[in-house]
């Protein structure tokens, strides 16, 4: 066993509940240019997802004015941790809403979570995270949509996970599921 | 992203590293073999 990840000890010294990462769905913005394209969190926009290593959660509450209440993330009683939806359809509907609002591209995909994970009513909050599979949506009727999405998808290949483009008829009518095609099914765990 | 009320905290310790391994370094070109007889003591 190589441990929970290269160089990352388990968060607590107890028997694990799961031996595979939990899988959820989430959204990202993009940051950087052609040679250093990175996934960026939508809420914490200073958070660029590392390539080749996990994103490690921390709690920003310790940075706020007032008495420090630092704690390990995720803490069940806080809102901290790396968030993911349980439901693919929820992620796709949120993607469609954001696609109309954001001036930059949005990416939807699966995320693998491990370490301490808070299971919530509609999703997960994890300690360690890495993207699992990514889709770059684009409006099928827009002439430059597909080539731009393909260029972005190529840039995201640096994460070394499957990356696809996702043609949409409109932002208002997102699919309930991403197309699976003849690819192998996604691994379980979410 | 609102994921709702917490239910429970679990510990997930993957057997296999979830982070894909880095791409292997490109193989270095092999040095050319010495010509037949090269380096042979006479």
Could you describe the 3D structure shown?
Chain A has 190 residues and is α+β, with helices and mostly antiparallel strands. Chain A has one domain (22-168). Chain A is 14% helix and 30% strand. Chain A contains two helices and seven strands; from the N terminus they run E-E-E-E-H-E-E-H-E. In chain A, strands 1, 2, 3, 4, 5, 6 and 7 form a seven-stranded mixed beta sheet that branches. In chain A, strand 6, helix 2 (145-156) and strand 7 form a beta-alpha-beta unit. The two termini of chain A are 21 Å apart. In chain A, 37% of the residues are buried. The model of chain A is unreliable at 1-7 and 184-190 (pLDDT under 50). Chain B is mainly β and 42 residues long. Helix content of chain B is 0%, strand content 17%. Chain B is built from no helices and one strand. Chain B has one strand at residues 6-12. Chain B starts with 5 loop residues before the first strand and ends in a 30-residue tail after the last strand. The model of chain B has no long low-confidence stretch (mean pLDDT 79). Chains A and B meet through strand 1, strand 4, strand 5 and strand 6 of A and strand 1 of B.
